[in-house]
Amino acid sequence: MFRIGIVGTGAIGKEIARAIDSGIVPAKLEAIWDRDEEEAKSFAATLKSKPKVLPLKELVEESNFVVEAASQAAVKEVGIAALGAGRSVMIMSVGALADKELLERLRSLAKNCHCSIYVPSGAVCGLDGVKSASIARIDTVTITTRKPREGLRGAPFIVKNNIDIDKITEPTTIYTGPASVAIKEFPANVNVAASLSLVGIGFDRTIVNVVVDPTIKRNIHEIEVKGEFGELKTHVENVPSGFNPKTSYLAALSAIATLKQVCEPLKIGT
Ligand SMILES: NC(=O)C1=CN([C@@H]2O[C@H](COP(=O)(O)OP(=O)(O)OC[C@H]3O[C@@H](n4cnc5c(N)ncnc54)[C@H](OP(=O)(O)O)[C@@H]3O)[C@@H](O)[C@H]2O)C=CC1
Ligand SMILES: O=C([O-])CC(=O)C(=O)O
């Protein structure tokens, strides 16, 4: 039986915890952790499985599968602690894996301990097709992320460039460039571009457009891929999480679906 530990109990971590608690994922919710320990404790008390609230080291010791749902900065610490102790890990803050050295370190730890690193599709659709297409030649990959103001507010790129997001009254492309840069400029907004880069043609050749769109209420991601296989286009209009407007509900659902797949013998999809 999987004994899951979750680091980060915000919008995604809470949804995952509730899904395990209610039996949607056939596993035990062993422990949770958040840097707001008191909040994590009150959340744990609302769950029927009453998970322990434990700092990273103890959480890893008590669990046999660790979920990172915290921040890009947390990925290194969580990944190394979990894989180093022989636990598989699921990473939500995928942008951290743009750091080639970190990615290689985590890969090699996983290989040595016969563990896996799971990266869910998150808030995008179509990674299955891109993964298949990448077996042959891919020429171009573009992702366009459109979010309402609240979905982008506070991003380093916006702050650094003094963009007054409240003065934007029509759909405006504020960034076009490689995923390698986008993921640093919008760390809480375009992790999807990182997942796409990992399955496709890498962080430098994946082009990201970020659009502030005050006319919409959903987080929209569009992917376009051209290659030897033909062409692929996906479009998803995500309901934002009620807890965190930057994060789409689908991202949490994708994490839950991935955990279900990890825990069950039947695996479907590319
Ligand atoms: N792969 C994908 O498609 C998607 C990925 N994401 C990413 O997934 C991650 C989780 O998203 P979400 O739940 O919406 O984020 P939230 O901000 O709602 O929740 C994250 C929680 O983790 C806490 N936290 C941050 N760093 C640490 C740490 N080192 N140790 C313990 N707790 C920590 C945060 O505390 P505090 O508030 O103090 O920072 C917060 O309570 C984010 O990095 C987000 O960008 C989001 C959407 C889609
Ligand atoms: O949830 C979303 O729509 C996408 C997101 O924030 C991310 O990829 O970081």
Topology:
Blueprint: E1 3-7, H1 11-21, E2 28-33, H2 37-46, E3 52-53, H3 56-62, E4 65-68, H4 72-84, E5 88-91, H5 100-112, E6 117-118, H6 127-133, E7 138-147, H7 149-152, H8 156-160, E8 172-178, H9 179-185, H10 191-199, E9 206-212, E10 219-227, E11 230-238, H11 249-263
Parallel strand pairs: 1-2, 1-4, 2-3, 4-5, 5-6, 7-9
Antiparallel strand pairs: 7-10, 8-9, 10-11
The structure holds NADPH dihydro-nicotinamide-adenine-dinucleotide phosphate (NDP) and oxaloacetate ion (OAA).
The site of NADPH dihydro-nicotinamide-adenine-dinucleotide phosphate has 28 residues, from helix 1, helix 4 and helix 10.
User: Strand tally, please?
Assistant: 11
The SSE order reads: EHEHEHEHEHEHEHHEHHEEEH
**Spatial shape:** globular
Q: Please indicate the percent range of residues in DSSP E strands (runs of 2 or more).
A: 15-25%
What does the model show?
By secondary structure, this protein is of the alpha/beta class. It has two domains: 3-122 and 250-263, Rossmann fold (3-Layer(aba) Sandwich); 127-246, Dihydrodipicolinate Reductase, domain 2 (2-Layer Sandwich), CATH 3.30.360. The protein has eleven helices and eleven strands. The protein has helices at residues 11-21, 37-46, 56-62, 72-84, 100-112, 127-133, 149-152, 156-160, 179-185, 191-199, 249-263; strands spanning 3-7, 28-33, 52-53, 65-68, 88-91, 117-118, 138-147, 172-178, 206-212, 219-227, 230-238. The strands form two sheets. It has a six-stranded parallel β-sheet, with helices on both faces. Helix 1 crosses helix 11. The radius of gyration is 18 Å and the shape is globular. It starts with a strand and ends in a 7-residue tail after the last helix. The mean pLDDT is 97. Keywords: NAD, NADP, Oxidoreductase, Pyridine nucleotide biosynthesis. Pathway: Cofactor biosynthesis; NAD(+) biosynthesis; iminoaspartate from L-aspartate (dehydrogenase route): step 1/1. Pfam families: Asp_DH_C, NAD_binding_3. Its EC number is 1.4.1.21.
